Amino acid sequence: MDLNEKELIANLKSEASREQAFQLLVKMYQQRLYWHIRKIVMNHDDTDDILQNVFIKVWKNIESFREDSSLFTWLFRIATNESLSHLQKQKRHSLVSINEIGDYLSESLESDVYFEGDEIQRKFQLAILQLPNKQRIVFNMKYFDEMKYEEISLVLKTSVGALKASYHFAVKKIEEFLKEDPK
Amino acid sequence: MKEKNVNIENLFGKLKKETPFRVPENYFETFADRLNVRIQEEKNSYNKRSLFIYFKPMMAVAAILVLAMLLIYIPITKLLPSDSGNIVQNRSEKNVNDSVSGIPAALISNFSEEQLLAAFSASNDLDSKTLTADNLAVYIADNYSSYEILTDN
After folding, report:
1. How far apart are CA A111 and CA A36, in angstroms?
2. What pLDDT is recorded for position B98?
3. Are residues B88 and B148 both part of a single domain?
4. Residue A181 pLDDT more than 80?
5. Least CA distance to B33: which residue of chain A?
6. Does any domain span residue B121?
7. What is the pLDDT, as a whole number, of residue B44?
8. What's residue A17's pLDDT?
9. Of the candidates A126, A127, A151, which has an alpha carbon nearest to the alpha carbon of residue A138?
């Protein structure tokens, strides 16, 4: 935890400087958190809701933040948990029968007006969406965000060994998916 | 694992690592303002909730009292004979009927025979000389059943 982050946390915990520090926190992390959430839930509107909920949780709970982990780790953990909870709710409350959350997300991707990738990228995203949620999160954090296993380990509270295995299986599955259906 | 990344990139050829998604125009520029509106709403609803939390114990106590009264009242009304109300009513009616010329029957038992005779003669404009113990016995026999005479004593 560097000095700036310590200062930021201190300012967030102090009522006098909280509002200003919170604005700074939002500016610092909104984009990274947005893309982290977006890769989990795919849809922009859902991502927007979840991102707001994440910052509201931070606003409400900053005083009880024990600083056992870095602010970045804490924020990513909240964002990951909120995103996974959202997917669970979608699965429970969806009027359409959804066998797999991956199918639902694939549909979401196909109809996403904010997707601007080419055909190869679309195919790649569909392959990623076939992965189980946690494996998909590990893959995204490692492949797209280029995070270290140690960092991912702190966010997901999973051992580095388990993360390496998870990433390995994810890569294998994506390869197989693309080989099976290369069009 | 770096090798695996290379494999995927080989598989996709010129695959870029950048996300293929985009956001609405000015999304990140306006996000903080929209978030502030949400936070204000949360604060307002929190204040309302706080008020509810303040009154919650009192409401709970009131609810418990009502429940306790119901728990007492319902078994009593269920367990007691359904005509207990009638008994009370009948009894009060009986008390009224059991008065002799305005003197309640219960009081009569506390008077001596002479006092009763004097009272009857005064209220009924009867001559105390014509009212004898036999007359009184006849009057009581006409107006009271033996059960009433026995139970009121």
Report:
1. 20
2. 52
3. yes
4. no
5. A23
6. yes
7. 84
8. 92
9. A151
In Å, how far is A67's CA from the nearest CA of chain B?
23
The contact set of B with A (CB < 8 A) is: 1, 4-5, 7-8, 11-17, 19-24, 27-28, 31-32, 34-35, 38-39, 42
Class for the domain spanning A1-98: mainly alpha
pLDDT at A142: 93
Q: Is the pLDDT of residue A95 over 60?
A: no
Q: Are B135 and B90 found together in one domain?
A: yes
pLDDT tens readout for residues B40-89: 888 887 776 666 777 788 888 999 999 998 888 888 887 776 655 555 55
Tell me the per-residue pLDDT of A150-159, one tens digit each, with 9 for 90 and over. Answer: 999 999 999 9
Residue ranges, comma separated, of all CATH 1.10.1740.10 domains in chain A are: 1-98
A59 contacts B28? CB cut-off 8 A = no
Asked if residue B3 belongs to a domain, the reply is: no
Mean of the per-residue pLDDT values of chain A: 88
Asked whether residue B18 falls in the same domain as residue B73, the answer is yes
CB distance B21–A116 less than 8 Å? Answer: yes
Which residues of A have a CB under 8 Å from any CB of B? 23, 26-27, 30-31, 34-35, 38-39, 44, 48, 51-52, 55-56, 59-60, 112, 114-118, 120-122, 124-125, 142-144, 146, 164, 167-168, 171, 174-175, 178
List every span in chain A annotated with CATH 1.10.10.10: 117-183
Q: Number of structural domains, chain B?
A: 2
Residue A28 scores a pLDDT above 90: yes
Of the residues B29, B45, B79, the one at which a domain ends? B79
> For every residue of chain B, which 3-state class applies, written as one string?
CHHHHHHHHHHHCCCCCCCCECCCCCHHHHHHHHHHHHHHHHHHHHHHHHHHHHHHHHHHHHHHHHHHHHHHHHHHHHHCCCCHHHHHHHHHHHHHHCCECCECHHHHCCCCHHHHHHHHHHHCCCCCCCCCHHHHHHHHHHHCCHHHHHHHC
> Which tokens sit at B127?
């001559």
Domain of B64, in residue numbers:
12-79
Looking at domain A117-183, which CATH architecture does it have?
Answer: Orthogonal Bundle (1.10)
